[in-house]
Predict the structure.
Amino acid sequence: MFPIKDTIPHRETPFVLYFIIGLNILAFIIELSLTPFQRQIFFYNFGLVPLKVTQNGWDFYCLFTNMFLHGGWFHIISNMWILWIFGDNVEDRMGHFRFFIFYILCGLAANFVHYYFNQLSPVPVIGASGAIAGVMGAYMILFPTSRIITLIPIFFIPFFFEIPAVIFLLFWFLSQLIAGTFNKIFMPPQVGGIAWWAHIGGFVAGMILHKFFVKKREYRDFYDDEILIRYL
């Protein structure tokens, strides 16, 4: 199940969204300039390594740098695509500066939750998905009646469905919760993979924190009108 687009256009140019995507692309270009061995050292130094924190304390810069690093082409393209779908409308409702602070705080919350559940893991955690999960959590609360155009392959045949945002995002969250619980119970900390608990932590943080960042002047009427025009 992969989201293609949502049905709500942004009202203002999402400058901060462009800026965040640009930072991620710039960091990825730097990664591509490194040899595989140099890249491993780079991830160890600038990613979040829970075991290193447990043994030596926090290198606070890694809490910020790790959310702009990615492990490969699919990793960065999928993350930036999802951020592009959900981020513009959330930035509309928060404003540019507030959205940037909100994004960073969700990324920090994701990092702390991942560390709490993986304190002995020597595997560096990199990627924007924790912060993006926070944006998704805010989107679910702010735009529950939006529709997400979703690609669902059935017997290798692609089908497209319009799924209400609240259903799509709740299903996504529950899938992360189930996978994170399974991973915590059955997988040793030395094994890499997806940072499920970072996704969970970021999503919950977005649901909680969004109300402190939404502008007093809301655009709910505008968005509701767009939905009614499309679906009457």
In short: The radius of gyration is 18 Å.
